[in-house]
Amino acid sequence: MSEEFKTSPYRRYKNDVETGSSGFDEDDHLGPFDIFRTKSASVDRLKRWRQAALVLNASRRFRYTLDLKKEEEKKQIIAKIRTHAQVIRAAFLFQEAGQQVSAAPKLPAPTPTGDHDSGPEQLATMTRDHDFSALQNYGGVNGLADTLKTSLDKGISGDDADILERKNVYGSNTYPRKKPRSFWRFLLDACRDTTLIILMIAAAASLALGIKSEGIKEGWYDGGSIALAVIIVIAVTAFSDYRQSLQFQVLNEEKQNIHMEVTRGGRRVQVSIFDIVVGDVIPLKIGDQVPADGVLISGHSLAVDESSMTGESKIVQKDHKAPFLMSGCKIADGYGTMLVTSVGINTEWGLLMASISEDNGEETPLQVRLNGVATFVGMVGLAVAVLVLVVLLARYFTGHSKATKDSPKYVAGKTSVSDAIDGAIKIFTVAVTIVVVAVPEGLPLAVTLTLAYSMRKMMADKALVRRLSACETMGSATTICSDKTGTLTMNVMTVTETYICGEKIDPSEKRSLPPKVASLLIEGIGQNTTGSVFMSEGGEVEVSGSPTEKAILQWGVNLGMAFDAVRSGSSIIHAFPFNSEKKRGGVAVQLPDSDIHVHWKGAAEIVLACCTRYINIDESLVPMDEDKRTLFKKSIEDMAAGSLRCVAFAYRTCEKAHVPDNEEELAHWTLPEDDLVLLGIVGLKDPCRPSVKIAVQLCIDAGIKVRMVTGDNLQTAKAIALECGILQSDADATLPNIIEGKTFREYSEAERLVVAEKISVMGRSSPNDKLLLVQALRKNGHVVAVTGDGTNDAPALHEADIGLAMGIQGTEVAKESSDIIILDDNFATVVKVVRWGRSVYANIQKFIQFQLTVNVAALVINVVAAVSAGDVPLNAVQLLWVNLIMDTLGALALATEPPTDHLMKRSPVGRREPLITNIMWRNLLIQAFYQITVLLVLNFEGKRILNLEHEEEDRATKVKNTLIFNAFVLSQLFNELNARKPDEINVFKGVTKNRLFMGIVGLTLILQVIIIMFLGKFTTTVRLSWKLWLVSIGIGIISWPLAAVGKLIPVPERPLSEFFTRKSTSRTTRETID
């Protein structure tokens, strides 16, 4: 393999702008339609391609692209609301300072509302203005809870009547949304097509002239038939667009439906963010979104990112002095609980959301490229239409266009003005209709159609697409960097091994631990956690929290832990929340006798490194010598080799004198983490998902390298990687295939680029290591997909080409930074997303092949006939019907093909690969050449071949043209089946599974029969005999064996475009040398 292809199969271009290391300005060297990554494209680049596109109907073409004008208006509205909020706060602070000087009287008591003692306006004002004195007026948080009839420990009762009453009094956690577009708006948009407007004007003129010359009974057909055809095109287009918009609407609602834990009736339950009510008590942890306005009940190291509201990227610490929490903000660090005081439109966030319109628009790279194709084809079509117009007008007014064999349509001085104008209008109408057919307006919209279809189906496959572009980019992915826990494994953890008092103890045995050790372990488990344990009235234990927390809490319950008693038996005075950098978390708890214990929990080898002693079976503190440390390390390695996650517990006492006694100093106190006493090490089993090995193998077969990036021990990661097939054997488990994050981090940038290619497993990695790996892979030309669930994964998710957040364990910060949310956290779902991504690209290529075949054939047939005979076999109404088959119905049929296993046996599609491949060119040219040849032969020799020479001239011409029209439409129908499988001989495989495709082909065929047999007056056709129907079907059906034979013709692997590029480059080089 050449050096050019070693780094990535698609690093074919030396100057790879996408990697950020190209060294030249993208805008200067690329065409307007060459935007390969819309995720971070500049506004200027987006404007540039819009200006370059040839568009007949801007409102329809750009409907699903980013509305740059609305985006600017949205920013201005957000800025106004933020300024408004800041002015209110500044005024309040000024007022508060004045009150302190003048000792202003207390605020008036709140106005009662129903059975509740405070109205939504007072509560909203208090939280919006951060009015601490108003909170004190309620009697602090405890008094406010009493006012809202809720318990700070157990929350509201949670029964339906209570929730309904709270919604009636305080409002629901929703905001008024702008009504979605009605069908009539889409109908209006469809009417704005420039060519259709021209056709309607021409139809009106033709109608007036026809009625004037032939009377209303016969004269309305020409103009009326065109008008009717245009109306049908408009109605079908509007219906198709309206249907798409409804699909996007459903997906948008699903995106906003965040689920959160709330405490109701003393237990934690999952509810939709829309069902949160005033009085709810909500536990918050790092990465959560604050779901409503409220006040802090209790918190430890709680820091909030308020940039979404204030616009300032400043992290704000929250405590009892600054307790107000704003809806829409994110928890940046720590954990705590909040009391909800305002919801929905009574919050600033609700006001903001209600003020800005939801713009679904976002162009995808494929959409932009297809606009380029549509523009090029449209320019050719426009030129052809002008040529046809000039030729036909010239022939008409010079008397070369014949009405019959011997009589011209126009004779100077004899033909009336109205007849001359009518003839010119008919010619003009044909030319305009050629533009309608030639400009593939539906081509870029086909992307939206297939994306809408794919997104709906992906939703059923447990994947929620947040960014349209990710759906298609996933089809180009060359590598997937996956988390281990919950993605490759089941995320159902249990403690299966324990090492306590220096001995291995089976947790399933009912063996009692020494009382002191058990007491300290239970204290550490119960206090150093973000989970909770609820004991129901029937005595059943309900454990909530992350899978790791749940497993440890369940083990604590098995040891005899009474969770509520542990929590009330001592109080947390300071906490260091679990940190993915340090891989551990700790708490300082004060006991009733004022003793202070500092408990640590985290990655076993990291906590062990901080320990200097351990407790033995006799409850004695024993110094940890080197032999004992080695023994503990060996036990950790053995557990890790058995694919167990190892967690260690340690503690130490702390003298009261060393603990700060004021709240401000305590908030910045660093928990002591040296001289710890090891209490125990546990091994948690998290089995591999049953489907993961097959999914990994599918990726390998599809040319996608799967890399595991985990914070777990390297030995645990290796064991899981072998189990799920990422590593094939122990022989693969060598540096740099398997590497620690710290080692990778310490390499230079150049070394990282080389090493990144070989990495299969990265253990003990930090989020920054994941980011460095993503950057290195992208610079090597890879299209990178990354999974993540933590807040700190956000930079890597954003940097990756496709960020995949976990729906169950993922934080809101991770989800907002992602492009797709994997709702079941399963790696097999990631592979399904790849299938759908490849399907999007494949379906668009099928549609391009089909549409361009129709374009080429229709244009060539009409041009050749116009130039040589002065007439066109396909008239305006017929071309409009062909346009409907090609644009709307063709897109519906081909853009909704489901993915096949065949797609996963190909290499990833390079994003710089030409849209029209050599295989497509071969298929397209064979079919177009066949159709053009047969139909032109019929056009020039049809009367002789069909024995129509003895019939009336007008009748013979109509039969011949009807046969050409019928054969042309049927050829497209048969070719539609060929387009389903561009590179497979069996085009019928799986066709019955796509009912929509079958339905559209069947409907088109029925409508074609109705047109030929019953609507001849409108389409200027005549009824065909059964023999001529057989001829039409025969002409169409030959396209099947022809396509099969054509697929045996080999094509060069090198794209055709490169041949022309190389030739023009070499010519330029020669000219420069000369």
Descriptive labels:
alpha/beta; Calcium-transporting ATPase, cytoplasmic transduction domain A; single chain; elongated; 5 domains; nine-stranded mixed β-sheet; transmembrane helix; 26 strands; disordered N terminus; Calcium-transporting ATPase, transmembrane domain; magnesium; eight-stranded mixed β-sheet; calmodulin-binding; 1074 residues
- Uncertain runs with pLDDT below 50, 5 residues or more? 1-28, 99-114, 1064-1074
Percent helix, as a range, is 40-55%
Mean pLDDT: 82
Instruction: Indicate the CATH architecture of the largest domain.
Output: Up-down Bundle
Would you give the CATH topology of the largest domain?
Calcium-transporting ATPase, transmembrane domain
Domain Cation-transporting P-type ATPase N-terminal: 131-211
GO cellular component, one term: plasma membrane
Organism: Apium graveolens (Celery)
Membrane topology: Multi-pass membrane protein
Question: How is the topology of this model organized?
Answer:
Layout: H1 26-29, H2 43-52, H3 58-61, H4 68-102, H5 120-128, H6 132-138, H7 140-147, H8 160-170, H9 183-190, H10 194-214, H11 216-219, H12 221-256, E1 259-264, E2 267-272, E3 281-285, E4 293-305, H13 307-310, E5 315-317, E6 324-325, E7 330-342, H14 348-355, H15 365-397, H16 417-438, H17 442-460, E8 463-465, H18 468-473, E9 479-482, E10 494-500, E11 503-505, H19 515-527, E12 532-535, E13 541-544, H20 547-558, H21 563-569, E14 571-579, E15 584-590, E16 596-603, H22 604-609, E17 611-615, E18 621-623, H23 626-641, E19 644-654, H24 663-667, E20 676-685, H25 692-701, E21 705-709, H26 714-724, E22 738-740, H27 741-746, H28 749-758, E23 761-763, H29 767-779, E24 784-788, H30 794-799, E25 802-806, H31 812-817, E26 820-822, H32 827-869, H33 876-894, H34 918-945, H35 953-980, H36 995-1014, H37 1016-1019, H38 1026-1037, H39 1039-1046, H40 1056-1073
Parallel strand pairs: 9-21, 9-24, 17-20, 21-23, 22-23, 24-25, 25-26
Antiparallel strand pairs: 1-2, 3-7, 4-5, 4-6, 4-7, 8-26, 10-11, 10-20, 12-13, 14-15, 15-16, 16-19, 17-18, 19-20
Helix pairs in contact: 4-14, 6-7, 9-12, 10-12, 10-16, 12-17, 12-33, 15-16, 15-17, 15-32, 16-33, 17-32, 17-33, 23-26, 28-29, 32-33, 32-34, 32-35, 33-35, 33-36, 34-35, 34-39, 35-36, 35-38
